[in-house]
Amino acid sequence: MKRPLFATTLVLVGLGLGATLLRDQVPPGTAQPADVPQAERAARLENEQNTMSIVRRYEPGLVFISTEQQVVRQDPMGWMFGGDPETQVQQGIGSGFFVNKAGDILTNYHVIAAQSPTGAAERITIRLMGREESVPARVIGLAPQYDLALLRAEKLDPKLITPIPLGNSDTLAVGQKAVAMGAPFGLDFSVTEGIVSSTARTIPIGFNGAGEGIMQRAIQTDAAINPGNSGGPLLDSSGKVIGINTQIISPGVQAGGVGQNAGVGFAIPVNAARNLLPRLQQAGGGVVSAPRLGVSAGLIVQSAQGAVAAGLSALSSSAKQDLDLPETGLVIGEVAPGSPAARAGLRGARQTQAFRGGEIALGSDVIVQADGKVVDALEDLQSALLDKQEGDQVKLQVVRGGERREVKVTLDASAFE
């Protein structure tokens, strides 16, 4: 017991000694400018006042979200003794925020997602700051591929709705202030502050049909984000939303523990949500999908999960040489009639060839790039389309008959159906 105490004493003494030595090294008569500490105090005060102003004005627009879902679980030993499955109530929490005076609430899809016919939890309630009672909310629209959802509270007094204005995530700069609001670990209506650490991270955010994330651009911030912050707003110094908090990198999870902040959090850029908002508002409680070109994958391989679409990187180099195919790319299987891909002249398979472990389309185009980004899977193509709107063009680089060419595909209304 004495040894740790001795070590601690040494540390404390050492810190004190270091301070004394540093003080003694200042030449006598050297005075520090009197205005430096005062300027520092003023700068701190200005930032504090800015943060407090943002919180006072817009924290009432923050929403605490609770979900409940009945799930049926079978006792692992029940089948041996004839036990019946039992029904349990699965609960979840998250955050959201008002985006308009109509009471639309933006949040993450994974906050309210559930294994149900609708894709959402059976019971969703919201609670506002300073109020004890919760009110039910219904789903207006879901966008799993973007990890976004739009809710609307029922029977809520319009006077209680405080929308938070949406900013412009395209103008973000590394180093600028970021304020995160949410309910970390269920501690509702919490505020943290940091900076924008990066504006150009690409991480898997949304969910494809297999439950895997789709690579998307994200905002990285060191403002503390923890479980429960999901769906809450990330604000700039003007109080405008620049992102929707969605994920963290957590060494705790990687070590098998509970996820917790490690100074690396991610937010969905608000411009992606802004572009999607009109479609979510018109979804009638249904699912909004990312734009589609109208092509299917032409390389199918067998895996532990069954038959899955794959990119050319899944094949051996010798196989690709034999078939005169590039090293990476998305082989087109079929082109849907009347689709943007069909109108752009993209070609589907003439025939298919089976091989050990799968089959591949022959004679079709191979998409190798979309808007300058490498494509090697359907998810890569989806990633390039996520921020597109009707009328936008996608520049594809395609290999046809061993030659590369550029094809421009215009997204019309059929791409969003």
Automatic annotation (TrEMBL):
The keyword Glycosyltransferase does not apply. GO terms for molecular function: peptidase activity. SUPFAM superfamilies: PDZ domain-like, Trypsin-like serine proteases. One of its GO terms (biological process) is proteolysis. The keyword Hydrolase applies. Keywords: Hydrolase, Protease. InterPro entries: Chloro_Bact_Ser_Proteases, PDZ, PDZ_sf, Peptidase_S1_PA, Peptidase_S1_PA_chymotrypsin, Peptidase_S1C. Residues 300-402 form the PDZ domain. PROSITE patterns: PDZ. Belongs to the peptidase S1C family. This is Serine protease.
